[in-house]
Design goal:
Elements: E1 9-14, H1 29-44, E2 48-53, H2 61-65, H3 71-95, E3 100-104, E4 113-114, H4 117-125, E5 129-133, H5 143-154, E6 158-163, E7 168-169, E8 181-182, E9 184-185, H6 187-192, H7 200-208, E10 213-217, H8 223-228, E11 235-237
Parallel strand pairs: 1-2, 1-6, 2-5, 3-4, 3-5, 6-10, 9-11
Antiparallel strand pairs: 7-8, 10-11
Helix pairs in contact: 1-3, 5-7
Length: 239
């Protein structure tokens, strides 16, 4: 393991859209392979990698709730979607030469291990990538919160939120070309400004456990490698 690494164990938070095709929905095997190649590069540095992935490419609970669907039912459907994404990503990573385990907070023994904290840590110690599916296993909690919770549980040194934007801005950079990017920002500033870093529950959990969040563009060449070797990339939320 390299002494030059800034972080030795990370929790990578991916949106379901990272696996989607051009339309933003479904699972595109080519996209999954692209993500897998980036994760392989991280593993080659000797970094322990755990992943939480969302399900926005398959199901958005708000769509159902807008039509009167029960919130818990909508959330459980989303959790099942995260397991589908986890399996797709696992397959792509295994074809890229990585050893992967999927653990689900909702038990489905035919396709995934149940989430067991000590087993997850042991997998990481053995050099395996662990994908956490099923969110927290409870409705009313987002995959952002699941990422923060799992990161704390496995002793990750940072949560890396991989997006299509190169950091955190004071407003939407797509809508406002004059948006200002933050290099660093405190948890309280992110919460008070209502910046869309992660939801408030996730931010608070990270703040209470002094766990930094790094927001970066997953598709920017070498962004993950630079983040792990101390390069200047993305926005760091801490303090």
């Amino acid at each position: 393991m390299s002494d030059e690494l800034k972080y030795h164990r990370i929790l990578l938070k991916l949106g379901g859209e990272s696996l989607a095709g051009p339309g933003g929905f479904g699972i595109d095997p080519l996209q999954a392979e692209e993500v897998a190649a980036r994760i392989r590069e991280v593993r080659s540095l000797g970094v322990d990698v755990a992943i939480v992935i969302g399900a926005g490419n398959l199901w958005r609970g708000k769509t159902g709730m807008d039509r009167g669907m029960d919130r818990a039912t909508a959330d459980y459907m989303g959790m099942l979607g995260t397991v589908m994404n986890a399996l797709a990503l696992m397959d792509a990573m295994e074809r890229n030469g990585l050893i992967v385990r999927v653990q689900s907070a909702i038990q489905m023994q035919a396709v995934a291990e149940p989430y067991i904290r000590r087993r997850a840590i042991r997998h990481l110690e053995k050099g395996r990538v662990v994908i956490f599916g099923g969110g927290t296993g409870n409705p009313h909690f987002s995959t952002d919160t699941a990422a923060a919770l799992r990161a704390v549980e496995i002793g990750a040194e940072v949560v890396i939120k991989a997006t299509k934007v190169d950091g955190v801005y004071d407003c939407d950079p797509v809508k406002n070309p004059n948006a200002v990017k933050f290099d660093t920002i405190t948890f309280m500033d992110a919460i008070n400004r209502r910046l869309e870093v992660m939801d408030t529950t996730a931010l608070t959990l990270c703040m209470e456990n002094e766990l930094p969040i790094l927001v970066l563009n997953l598709w920017q060449p070498d962004a993950l490698r630079l983040a792990l070797t101390g390069g200047k990339v993305g926005t760091l939320v801490m303090g």
